[in-house]
């Protein structure tokens, strides 16, 4: 049975002006996420892209209600199917997590309980959210492990996380995330610790999931190779703000923000067209200025103007684009693309 394609206007998750601040109570505050907004539709894969420290993972943890209650402040809204997740209490959020929204974390070894067998951990999700008896949940867990490509699933059910390879641990996490057939899946760097062969298998698995079930996927990554093979829409983050948003094809064909161009310029090419040394973005994420004072990327940007260090650029529609393409830059690359920052 083929699932009808969702209407383009249908929105499953709408994040608006999300702000996450750490600190307070006499300590200086740090704004890790600063006014992030994006939409996710059923069956769509949306990428959150940027270097470590740009706010990608904090955004996902805020949406999932997994940030510590003390020492931080979360504002804005994250409306899932008409319900603002940020207004729910712990009990209400626990009902949504696993059942409607699931998350795959970056490090499966630290995400899985080391003293509980894989079968019990997967079965707990089914017992908690689908009310299954333990025997039924264990049988379903075996089917889930088989579905995500774990060989000999009946034996693996009885094994512990340290007995599985990195790829199998990540597949077990995906099985737990899929247990209740969530409508929204958040994957936080799910292939970082895996070798390239296993990376490709995990990404193909996620791609099939989205196509077959209509599940929406938020892919958090710093790897634009992952974006090229998986994402429909790309949000590039820097300093806690989105600096460019466009479709995957538009971002790769016409990157307008110097930061996006810099990320693309640092990727090795296999077609032989780039024989010169890879272009690196100078400095690090720590080399920025507050958005309240100007563009956070200005200290690292070769296209920075005087206004970039005194006035923060707004996020605006690119007037040269034939489709929706927004960017936050006073001096973007030429419309046909530009040199890496």
From TrEMBL:
Q: Does the keyword Nucleotide-binding apply?
A: yes
Q: Where in the cell is it found?
A: Cell membrane
Q: Which residues cross the membrane?
A: none
Example GO BP: peptide transport
Q: Which InterPro entries match?
A: AAA+_ATPase, ABC_Ni/Peptide_Import, ABC_transporter-like_ATP-bd, ABC_transporter-like_CS, Oligopep_ABC_C, P-loop_NTPase
Any one Pfam family here would be oligo_HPY
Q: Where is this region: Disordered?
A: 316-341
Residue ranges annotated for the ABC transporter domain, each copy included: 13-264
Q: Name one GO cellular component term.
A: plasma membrane
Q: How does it sit in the membrane?
A: Peripheral membrane protein
- Quote one Gene Ontology molecular function term: ATP hydrolysis activity
Q: Which UniProt keywords apply?
A: ATP-binding, Cell membrane, Membrane, Nucleotide-binding, Transport
Provide the family line: Belongs to the ABC transporter superfamily.
What PANTHER family does this protein's entry cite? DIPEPTIDE TRANSPORT ATP-BINDING PROTEIN DPPD (PTHR43297:SF2), OLIGOPEPTIDE TRANSPORT ATP-BINDING PROTEIN APPD (PTHR43297)
What is the name of this protein? ABC transporter ATP-binding protein
Upper taxonomic lineage? Bacteria, Bacillati, Actinomycetota, Actinomycetes, Micrococcales
């Amino acid at each position: 049975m083929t699932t009808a394609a969702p209407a383009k206007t249908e929105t499953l998750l709408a994040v608006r002006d999300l702000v996450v601040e750490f600190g307070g109570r006499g300590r200086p505050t740090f704004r890790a996420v600063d006014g992030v907004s994006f939409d996710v539709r059923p069956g769509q894969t949306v990428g959150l892209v940027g270097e470590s420290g740009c706010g990608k993972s904090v955004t996902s943890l805020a949406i999932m209600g997994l940030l510590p209650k003390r020492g931080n402040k979360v504002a804005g809204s994250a409306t899932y199917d008409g319900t603002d997740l940020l207004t729910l209490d712990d009990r209400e959020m626990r009902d949504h997590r696993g059942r409607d929204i699931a998350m795959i974390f970056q490090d499966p070894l630290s995400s899985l309980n080391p003293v509980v067998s894989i079968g019990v951990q997967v079965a707990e999700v089914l017992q908690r959210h689908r009310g299954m008896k333990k025997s039924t949940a264990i049988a379903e867990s075996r089917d889930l492990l088989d579905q995500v490509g774990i060989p000999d699933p009946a034996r693996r059910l009885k094994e512990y996380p340290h007995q599985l390879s990195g790829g199998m641990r990540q597949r077990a996490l995906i099985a737990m995330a899929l247990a209740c057939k969530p409508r929204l899946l958040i994957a936080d760097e799910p292939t970082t610790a895996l070798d390239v062969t296993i990376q490709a298998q995990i990404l193909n698995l996620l791609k099939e999931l989205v196509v077959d079930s209509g599940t929406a996927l938020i892919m958090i990554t710093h790897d634009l190779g992952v974006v090229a093979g998986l994402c429909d829409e790309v949000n590039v983050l820097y300093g806690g703000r989105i600096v460019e948003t466009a479709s995957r094809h538009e971002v790769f064909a016409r990157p307008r923000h110097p930061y996006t161009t810099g990320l693309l310029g640092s990727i090795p090419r296999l077609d032989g067209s780039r024989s010169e040394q890879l272009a690196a973005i100078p400095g690090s994420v720590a080399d920025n200025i507050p958005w309240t004072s100007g563009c956070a990327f200005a200290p690292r940007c070769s296209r920075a103007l005087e206004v970039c260090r005194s006035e923060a650029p707004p996020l605006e529609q690119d007037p040269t684009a034939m489709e929706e393409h927004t960017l936050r830059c006073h001096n973007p690359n030429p419309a046909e693309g530009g040199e890496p920052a």
